[in-house]
Amino acid sequence: MAAIISELQSTPKLWFKLKDKLSVVLIRQLRTIAGEKKLIDDITPLMHPAKKGVIIECKRPEFNHYTGQIYDKFKPIPLASKGWHHKKSKGDHFIINKMTKDVDVKSERITFEETGLDYRINSALTKFGFSQPTEVQERGIPSILLGCNTALAAETGCGKTLAYLLPIMQHILKWKKHMEPPPMNCPLALILSPNRELAQQIHDVIQMFSEDLQLTSKVIIGGHTKRMILNPEFSDVDILVGTLGAISKLTTLRIYKMSFVRHVVLDEADTLLDDSFNEKLSYLLRFFAFNYKTNHSSGFFPSGSQLTLASATMPRGATETLQSFIATESLVSIKTKHLHHVLSTVKQHFIRLSATQRPQELLKLVKYSRDKPTIIFSTKTETSQWVSLFLNENGIDCLNLNGEMTPEARAGKFAKFQKGLTNVISCTDIGSRGLNTTQVKHVINFEFPMYVADYIHRCGRTGRLGSSSDCRVTNFIVGAREVELVQKIELSIRSRTELPNVNGNIKRLIVNRR
C-alpha cells in the first residue's frame, strides 16, 4: 500500500487515469485500507488538487472539472447535477468559475480606421473613448460597409450595436452629400427592436453621435401609437428606431413612409424571427426591396435596401421567415467563437433548493451584497412583484419591472437604478434583452428560465463590455425542468461543446409541450 501511495504522489497524472478506472466507492475503500491518517492525508491532495485550474467547483469535490480534463468517450460524463431530481439533493451546489478566453492568434487588434470607417466617425469614436474595435466590430463593420446583408451573432455585451450603427451612419453621411433631402417622416435607415427598453437604448447611442455627425433620429415605441395616429408629428429623420408593433401600425397608416429606407436592422433578431412576431415582421419587411449586395462604392443613393441581423443567439429557423423577401444565401454570417457557449466572464453558481428555501436564500444573498447593483429575474410577473414586496418588507429597497407597466413607469424606475438611487431590481424576462448597463454586478435567477436562450440573455445583463471583473450569476434550481436545463449547461462545459437548443423557436416549443 505504501508503494502505491508513493507512486501516486510522484505521478499526479496517474491518479486521474486511475480515477477513470475506479469507482468513487473503490477510491474510498483504498483510502480506508491505508489505515493511517498520514497516508489518507497524502492521497487527499491527489484526489482533489489545488483549485488552480478548476472550471467546475462542486460541493462534492469528486465531481470537480479541471482545465484540459478529458472523459472516456465510451462512458457517460459524470455530472454534479445528475441526482438533482431526488429530494435528498437539496442543498447541493456547484460553481462554474470564470474562464480565461482563448488568446487571439493576432498579437494586436486592428484599429477602427482599419475597418474602413472615415475620419468623421473615427473622431467621434475617439471623443467618446472608443479606442479599439471588439471582435464582432472588427469583422462586422467591413461587411456592412461593403454592402453585404449581414448576420451578426455574438455573445451579449460585446458591442453589436456599434458594429451596425457605425457603418450605417457613414453611409448616410455619404448619401446626404449627393441627394436632395427626403420628405419628412421618410427615414434612410430603420432599426427594429422587440421591446421598448432596447429601442430607447439604441436611440440613446445614436444621439451620442448625432451632434458631431449632424444626423437626425427618432424613437417610436408602443403606448402612444393612438396619439401619434390622431395627432401625427412630421420631421426630418435619418434613422428611425422603434418596436415592431408601433412601426408596423404607423407604416401601415402611411404616417411614416419606408420608400427611402436603405438600411434595415433587426436587433435581437432571434426574438423578432420567432413565430410570436413572424406574421407582423413578414408583413412589414415586404415594404422593402432587398439587394443581393448593395453597391456603396460610388457614394450615390442605392436602388435597394440592405439587411442586418444582430443577436446573441442566431435561430437556425431564420431562413424560413427570411426567404420570402431576401435571398438567404446573400447573408454573410459573422459569428464569434464564444457564441452559444456559457458566458465565460462571470462566475455562475447553481444551488439546488426547495421552493420554500428560495426566499431565505435570496434575502441572505441580497443583504450580503446590497451595495452591489443586482437584477433578480423571475419567469412570472406575479413572482417578480412578490420578490420586490418581500425584499422591501425586509428593509431592502427593490424596484419592480414587468410587461404590465407603462413604458414611462419602466423607464423611470430603470433610470433610478442607472443613477444608483437604488441597487436592486426585480423583473421578468422583459429585462433580459432590454436592460443595457455596465453597472450590474450580480444576476440572480430566482426562478430559473425554461429555455437556454433565456439563460444566455439573462446572464448577459452582467459581465458586459466595460463592466468590472467581479460580476457573478446565482441560480436557484427547484423544478424538474430546471434540473434538466442545468444538466445540459453543465454537460456543455465538461464536453466543451455549444449549449443545446439555443436556437429554439420559443412559441413552437411551447406549442409542442402542450
TrEMBL record:
Motif (Q motif): 110-138
Molecular function in Gene Ontology: ATP binding; hydrolase activity; nucleic acid binding; RNA helicase activity
Domain named Helicase C-terminal: residues: 357-510
Gene3D superfamilies: P-loop containing nucleotide triphosphate hydrolases (3.40.50.300)
Domain DEAD-box RNA helicase Q: start-end pairs: 110-138
Keyword vocabulary terms for this entry: ATP-binding, Helicase, Hydrolase, Nucleotide-binding
Name by which UniProt lists this protein: RNA helicase
Lineage: Eukaryota, Metazoa, Ecdysozoa, Arthropoda, Hexapoda
